[in-house]
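Input chain follows. Return structure tokens only.
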Amino acid sequence: MKGLSLTQLAEELERQKAAKRDFMANTTDVRVIPNEDSPTKLSMEVGRTNSEIFPIKQHAIRQVGTRLNIPAVYVDRLAESHPDLLAYNINKLFEREPEVRMVRVLDNNVRAFLSDKFRPLDNFDFAEAVLPKLVGMQAEISSCDITETRMYIKAIIPGVQREVKAEGVFFGDGGHNQIHVLKPGICMSNSEVGAGSMTVQPGIHEVHCSNLMIFNKNAMRKYHVGRRQTNSQEEMWEIFTDKTKKQSDLAFWMQVGDLVDSALSGTMFEGMVADCEAKMTGTEIAKPSVAIKELPNLSENEQEGVLAHLIRGGDLSQFGMQAAITRFAQDEANSYERQIELEQIGGNIIELPSTQWAAIAEAA
């Protein structure tokens, strides 16, 4: 299993809370300079009279490029081979198209370049809001991690489960139908650096093979949008968490806790189980090696791995395809983030209408 233990997650959140800094500055007071020791061979100087210089990480320099309409492939190429030329282009555009931006720094590296309306809903506060809810439900934290762009927490509720017989799909002895034991699960994620919304997604955990399929239907999202932050007296200022902000965010975090309650409610779980049961029958895959190529967002190596699990499992239903994808995600995804994406692809397969699934299953 990839990721961190819950103790490691808590320790890292505490560490990052103490190590992070946020600045607001007009781009006329921001400069990008070449730096061979930086992750992107570039650093950012923030401010004029009391400036500070920080190496820039890839996600942040790509955000700079996106804001200035510089394609990511061009940003990556120049950052690698011609950082001085990229810095020149950025600085000139900063001067000619001035605006106030938020610069987020962690461990003395620029990790994000964001709008002045970005609302810092941080991972520490998110975990503080949702973990007590999960503890109250006696949930098992199945895995968690903090990547460069997102934090993830996955949990399973142990006290509720449903058994569903897969008609026509047999164990190795050929005489006993497979029984799928399903439990409610949840995947929660957040980005402090503008890589998507705060998200709470319900899921189904299959007990026998430890797979988790993550559903898009009934997912709940909160976007990091707030009021524009202004300070006309300063060219650059550092943002600190004040008492007023904590009070205003309190109601928000209570709403997030309510989202977790809803995602794990019995009604939602029963609906997902019914969806799974319905997809255990219907159009079966005619040619597995062809059907795999009809699936979106899988690399060639991933297609081969999923195909191997599909054939080994012997279940050629829509549910069986989902199971092959989520099984592949457990051990063979090349990163924790990719594991989550594959589990979401598995959920998407279950959510496909029967006509779309038939087009995949009957592909020739």
